[in-house]
């Protein structure tokens, strides 16, 4: 699904914020992306959703190298990716319903299918009574749930979520993680950037751990063993 080979990223003439990043994500995998503030999580996410190209190294997505792709080719790849941004990026003049419906309408799904799918998903995330509300009238947590619903409505091949539970209470956060797990079981590859140790421990997926611009892949057995050693 994704392969990074010796990838580096810098902004302008400053030092690299990501250095020699190497990892492979298989189709249907689920990883947490973790690390301290400033470690480069958002920058790595930006590379994965094709918001930037790397300064150096190779990135392969869906079996194709993206380094030399033209804008039209990148747009075709992006259609397979769902993204939950920290800043939500909802369209303020569209209702919650229309924001969530947008990906389905862009790809030309029948309006009856759009209606049924959006209504069902908004009910699932606890916003069935707010589907006609405009984003500025919603709380931060409600806007975040609309953004998550929009990201998953078209069942993307790859879902990238940057702190998706950051503005949610524990109950709603766990409920949305269960939704991500269901999508994953249906074949969606998922990467969730999070600071929440509670979420990571409860769901137990392997971790991509960033530190000082470098990355280490931690499989379950590695950090479960560390946790056991810490207890005993």
Account of the 3D structure:
There is one protein chain. The protein is α/β, with parallel strands linked by helices and 232 residues long. The protein has two domains: 1-80 and 160-232, Rossmann fold (3-Layer(aba) Sandwich); 89-155, no CATH class. Helix content is 38%, strand content 24%. It has eight helices and ten strands. The protein has helices at residues 41-48, 71-78, 96-106, 111-124, 140-152, 170-185, 197-203, 220-231, and strands at 2-10, 16-25, 30-34, 56-61, 64-65, 81-84, 158-162, 189-193, 207-211, 214-218. The strands form two sheets. It has a six-stranded mixed β-sheet with strand order 6-7-8-3-9-10, sandwiched between helices. Strands 2-1-4-5 form a four-stranded antiparallel β-sheet, with helices on one face. Helix 3 packs across helix 4 (111-124) and helix 3 (96-106) runs parallel beside helix 5. The model is unreliable at 221-232 (pLDDT under 50).
Q: In the CATH hierarchy, what is the superfamily of the largest domain?
A: P-loop containing nucleotide triphosphate hydrolases
Termini separation comes to 38 Å
Largest beta sheet, briefly?
6 strands, mixed
- Radius of gyration from CA coordinates: 18 Å
Number of domains: 2
How many beta strands in the DSSP annotation? 10
H/E element sequence: EEEHEEHEHHHEHEHEEH
Strand order of the largest sheet: 6-7-8-3-9-10
Q: Which class of secondary structure composition applies to the elements?
A: alpha/beta
Remind me, CATH topology of the largest domain? Rossmann fold
What percent of the residues sit in helical stretches (DSSP H or I)?
25-40%
Given the structure, what is the number of helices?
8
Query: Which CATH architecture of the largest domain?
Result: 3-Layer(aba) Sandwich
Q: Beta fraction of the residues?
A: 15-25%
Just give the CATH class of the largest domain.
Answer: Alpha Beta
Tell me, rounded to a whole number, the average pLDDT.
86
User: How does the overall form come out from the CA principal axes?
Assistant: globular
Low-pLDDT residue intervals, each spanning 5 or more residues:
221-232
């Amino acid at each position: 699904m994704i392969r990074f080979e010796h990838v580096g990223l810098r902004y302008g003439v400053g030092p690299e914020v990501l250095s020699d990043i190497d990892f492979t994500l298989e189709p249907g995998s689920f990883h947490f992306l973790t690390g301290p503030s400033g470690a480069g999580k958002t920058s790595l996410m930006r590379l994965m959703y094709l918001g930037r190209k790397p300064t150096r190294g190779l990135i392969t997505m869906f079996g194709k190298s993206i380094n030399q792709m033209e804008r039209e080719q990148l747009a075709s790849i992006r259609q397979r990716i769902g993204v939950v941004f920290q800043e939500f990026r909802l369209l303020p003049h569209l209702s919650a319903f229309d924001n969530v419906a947008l990906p389905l309408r862009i790809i030309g799904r029948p309006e009856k299918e759009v209606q049924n799918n959006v209504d069902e998903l908004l009910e699932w995330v606890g916003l069935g009574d707010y589907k006609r509300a405009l984003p500025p009238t919603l709380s931060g947590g409600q806007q975040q749930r609309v953004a998550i619903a929009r990201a998953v409505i078209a069942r993307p091949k790859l879902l990238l979520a940057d702190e998706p539970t950051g503005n949610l209470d524990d109950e709603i956060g766990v409920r949305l993680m269960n939704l991500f797990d269901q999508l994953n079981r249906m074949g969606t590859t998922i990467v969730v950037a999070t600071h929440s140790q509670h979420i990571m421990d409860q769901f137990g997926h392997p971790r991509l751990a960033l530190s000082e611009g470098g990355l280490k892949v931690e499989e379950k057995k590695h950090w479960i063993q560390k946790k056991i050693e810490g207890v005993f």
